[in-house]
User: Which sequence fits this backbone?
């Protein structure tokens, strides 16, 4: 997130913000630090600090696509899975298409994001490819490049999907910070901007709603397997084997 600053050599402060989810499904503000959006070193410093403060390795990390974030994650929390933010990806893909085609493309992209299963999402991707790949291959390539990470949420409870598909928890909370800096025409200094952002985000955290299906967070942390949002049980495995025999 960027905040305007009136004094100093730089007129903008880049804030690295991390929100976590506790075992009981409540969200918690974990970090608000000064850094550089694309800097692996900056993000690694934030993550090492969290690790030093006792943060266990996250099961899933949702981010807006900043390259430094993912490089730092591989270094500090190599076992954490990655989910790319669909809101940022959709905007990125639409930028590669003419304005006249964007409404149609946006509809297809939302079908992908909201598909009930990984297979249905893949079918929506192929429909998008058929329509746009010939003339606008760069738009399709943006999806292909990150598809594994765009579809990671399917391996988590369906009740959690609306929380996992985007980084909206940070985006929406930061609206208060942006409003305050717009009124004051920017913070006086980087230090003041950092303090103001932390105070406003900390106050906003009191209004954050708990995860849907919060009782399932403990299952995720314990390593329970989910497929297309549903818990995988021995019965599920037996049904899959039967389907395979019938298909054979």
Assistant:
């Amino acid at each position: 997130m960027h905040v305007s600053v009136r004094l100093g050599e730089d007129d903008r402060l880049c804030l690295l913000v991390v929100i976590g989810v506790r075992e009981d499904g409540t969200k918690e503000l974990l970090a608000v630090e000064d850094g550089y959006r694309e800097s692996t070193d900056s993000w690694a410093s934030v993550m090492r600090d969290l690790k030093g403060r006792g943060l266990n390795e996250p099961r899933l990390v949702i981010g807006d696509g900043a390259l430094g974030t993912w490089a730092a994650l591989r270094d500090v929390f190599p076992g954490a899975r990655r989910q790319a933010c669909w809101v940022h990806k959709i905007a990125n893909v639409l930028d590669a298409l003419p304005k006249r085609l964007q409404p149609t493309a946006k509809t297809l992209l939302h079908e992908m994001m909201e598909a009930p299963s990984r297979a249905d999402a893949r079918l929506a991707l192929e429909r998008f490819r058929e329509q746009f790949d010939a003339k606008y291959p760069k738009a399709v390539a943006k999806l292909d490049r990150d598809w594994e990470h765009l579809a990671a949420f399917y391996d988590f409870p369906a009740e959690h999907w609306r929380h996992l598909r985007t980084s909206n928890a940070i985006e929406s909370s930061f609206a208060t910070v942006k409003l305050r800096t717009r009124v004051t025409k920017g913070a006086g200094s980087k230090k003041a901007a950092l303090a103001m952002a932390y105070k406003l985000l900390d106050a906003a955290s009191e209004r954050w709603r708990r995860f849907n299906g919060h009782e399932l967070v403990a299952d995720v942390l314990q390593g329970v397997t989910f497929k297309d949002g549903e818990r995988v049980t021995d019965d599920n495995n037996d049904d899959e084997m039967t389907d395979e025999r019938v298909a054979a």
User: Anything to note?
Assistant: Residues 238 and 244 are 10 Å apart (CA to CA).
